[in-house]
Amino acid sequence: MIDKIIIVLVLYIVLLLFDLPRLKKNEKRVTYIYSIMIVITFYLSADFIFEAEWPNIRGLINVIFLGPAELVADYLMGK
């Protein structure tokens, strides 16, 4: 787990060192969108580091599309 933490920290430090000067020059809308993306990646990084089964995009897709997909598959299979 320590190796995952170190890798993620290095990646975020490099990312922010590279992007912070550019974000200061951009308009606020770009900064807000970037911030939202960073928050999402923090969440997914924590899920990766702690190997937790937290909700992610795959779970959201399953909740939305699994039921209708099973109905279509059952219909096509003749059940």
Q: How many beta-strand runs?
A: 0
Are there runs of 5+ residues with pLDDT below 50, and where?
none
- Which of globular, elongated, flat, extended, rod-shaped describes the shape? elongated
Strand-residue fraction?
A: under 5%
Number of domains: 1
Structural class: mainly alpha
N-C termini distance: 47 Å
Q: What order do the helices and strands follow?
A: HHH
Task: Give the mean pLDDT.
Answer: 88
Number of helices, counting only DSSP H or I runs of 4 residues or more: 3
- The level of helicity is over 70%
Q: Give a short account of the largest sheet.
A: none
Radius of gyration: 19 Å
Short characterization:
The protein is mostly helical and 79 residues long. The protein is built from 3 helices and no strands.
Describe the overall structure:
With 79 residues, the protein is mainly alpha-helical. It has one domain (2-77). Helices cover 86% and strands 0% of the residues. The chain contains three helices and no strands. Helix 1 (2-25) runs antiparallel to helix 2 (28-50). The mean pLDDT is 88.
